């Protein structure tokens, strides 16, 4: 099989009987999309990052958001840096994820703040930086490995975003989860499980669109 041969949902390793089948089916697809993401040139990466910030700038979802959760890209993820700078320029509060003991919280990230290496070697704000409740974010710029047009999301496999935003459906005002992606990360279908939190919107180098109940 060549590195980028399409992976079907049935090509998982059936010897692993620790995880439910849907969970195992995600692995080969995750591996393949991550390799494709890492193979992008820095020029392609910069083009997507700029295009995403441009789409955000002209969308009401972003314009009206005051508290915005972002992330610092690694492994070929869509780079949030231009979007973070845009937030700061427009006076929005920016937060970054911090993982600890299987949970994810968000701490404020202001211009010039020092960062440190945290869980999974991601850069995170220092402990002195104030945290902000996840469920009170207006907008969550969400990293992803793969997505469908309808807003299903494949992440890194830790379940952090699923768990963190699992209970928000009961709220009148809930954070908008906006997936950031290179358009090649779009797939026809994903082996989703009941715990998977759907995206409310997706933005790529090409466009921003609303999914699911927010459409
Ligand atoms: N930039 C960035 N920051 C982020 C995330 C992210 O996706 N991107 N996260 C989003 O949640 C959290 C970290 N989540 C992680 C989840 C899993 C693995 C991990 O080690 N995954 C396994 C693959 C598991 C599998 O395929 O089943 C690996 O890489 O070997 C790493 C980080 C918080 N910060
Ligand atoms: N709401 C939840 N409650 C309990 N466990 C959960 C919940 N959501 C996800 N999990 C667990 O997290 C694990 C990883 O889930 P999944 O493969 O969907 O992660 P992911 O969305 O790809 O990762 P991430 O959000 O970290 O990028 C699964 O074993 C799943 O059982």
From TrEMBL:
<keyword id="KW-0436">Ligase</keyword>
<dbReference type="InterPro" id="IPR024185">
    <property type="entry name" value="FTHF_cligase-like_sf"/>
</dbReference>
<dbReference type="GO" id="GO:0030272">
    <property type="term" value="F:5-formyltetrahydrofolate cyclo-ligase activity"/>
</dbReference>
<keyword id="KW-0547">Nucleotide-binding</keyword>
<comment type="similarity">
    <text>Belongs to the 5-formyltetrahydrofolate cyclo-ligase family.</text>
</comment>
<dbReference type="InterPro" id="IPR037171">
    <property type="entry name" value="NagB/RpiA_transferase-like"/>
</dbReference>
<keyword id="KW-0460">Magnesium</keyword>
<keyword id="KW-0067">ATP-binding</keyword>
<keyword id="KW-0479">Metal-binding</keyword>
<dbReference type="Pfam" id="PF01812">
    <property type="entry name" value="5-FTHF_cyc-lig"/>
</dbReference>
<feature type="compositionally biased region" description="Polar residues">
    <location>
        <begin position="1"/>
        <end position="17"/>
    </location>
</feature>
<protein>
    <recommendedName>
        <fullName>5-formyltetrahydrofolate cyclo-ligase</fullName>
        <ecNumber>6.3.3.2</ecNumber>
    </recommendedName>
</protein>
<dbReference type="InterPro" id="IPR002698">
    <property type="entry name" value="FTHF_cligase"/>
</dbReference>
<feature type="region of interest" description="Disordered">
    <location>
        <begin position="1"/>
        <end position="27"/>
    </location>
</feature>
């Amino acid at each position: 099989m060549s590195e980028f041969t399409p992976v079907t949902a049935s090509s998982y390793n059936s010897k692993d009987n620790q995880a439910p089948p849907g969970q195992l089916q995600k692995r080969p697809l995750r591996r393949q999309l991550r390799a494709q993401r890492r193979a992008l040139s820095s020029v392609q990466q910069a083009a997507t990052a700029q295009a995403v910030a441009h789409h955000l700038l002209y969308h009401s979802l972003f314009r009206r958001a005051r508290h915005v959760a972002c992330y610092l890209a690694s492994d070929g993820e869509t780079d949030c840096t231009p979007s973070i700078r845009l937030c700061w320029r427009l006076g929005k509060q920016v937060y970054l994820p911090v993982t600890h003991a299987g949970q994810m919280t968000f701490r404020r990230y202001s211009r010039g703040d020092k960062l440190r290496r945290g869980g999974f070697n991601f850069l995170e704000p220092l402990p002195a930086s104030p945290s902000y409740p996840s469920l009170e974010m207006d907008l969550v710029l969400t990293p992803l490995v793969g997505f469908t047009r309808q807003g299903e999301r494949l992440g890194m496999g830790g379940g952090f975003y699923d768990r963190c935003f699992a209970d928000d459906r009961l709220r009148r005002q809930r954070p908008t989860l906006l997936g950031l992606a290179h358009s090649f990360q779009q797939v026809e279908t994903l082996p989703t499980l009941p715990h998977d939190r759907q995206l409310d919107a997706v933005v790529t180098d090409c466009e921003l669109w609303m999914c699911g109940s927010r459409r």
